[in-house]
Amino acid sequence: MPRKTSPRVATSLGCAPLRAMYRAAEKRKPSRWPEVEKEFLQAMWDFDQKFASGEANQGDNQNGKGDFFTDLIALLLENCSDKSLYGRGSVPGLIFTGWVPRERVGAYFRVIDLGLIPFEENALTHAAIPIKALEYGAYGKPVVASRLKGLLGLQLSHVECQPLEVDTWCHRIEELLRQAGAPPASAELDAYRWDALAKNIEQLFV
């Protein structure tokens, strides 16, 4: 499956930082997952800095920066593993969906049993709050996540933060799959709706 975004698609002047990041990533060969994660998070940080300063925009002819960074992480993983993520065949227990149109994403959230957020813990990830934690909760799904400071601070009832250890995660995933947990209280998530966040921003200027 061809990538939806590439340096050839991101053609506007404001997309120059995206193209530069992609070209640089094509030349690198990370050897371990922590290197892949570090490069990916650094690229997102660099882009946000350039976007805030007006040097970059969200991209043209694409689904914002999201599509670009989906392609970037795929490129880094392919360079690390020497395997094609877009041309991979059948793998027992895994379904590679490829690109999913935004209007169909909700259907995937409805059929999953739980969400996983296995981030390595470092300065960058501790400063982040993965929006997927809120999206999983909006569909009433429990979440197992790394012990990120941002998530711990939210204290969301559907998010269980665990040390990033294989045995611990396997045990909790098996337990959660056997349970029928209650969805999070709507009041927990109401504060993170876009309209609520917009009102909070408005208050800064009142």
Would you kindly provide a written description of the structure presented here, covering whatever features stand out?
The chain starts with 15 loop residues before the first helix and ends with a helix. The model has no long low-confidence stretch (mean pLDDT 79). Strands 1-2-3 form a 3-stranded parallel beta sheet, sandwiched between helices. The protein folds into 2 domains: 13-81, no CATH class; 105-199, no CATH class. The protein has helices spanning 16-26, 33-52, 64-81, 102-111, 123-126, 131-138, 149-154, 166-178, 186-190, 194-203, and strands at 115-117, 143-146, 159-162. Helices cover 51% and strands 5% of the residues. By secondary structure, the protein is mainly alpha-helical. Helix 7 (149-154) links the parallel strand 2 and strand 3 (159-162).
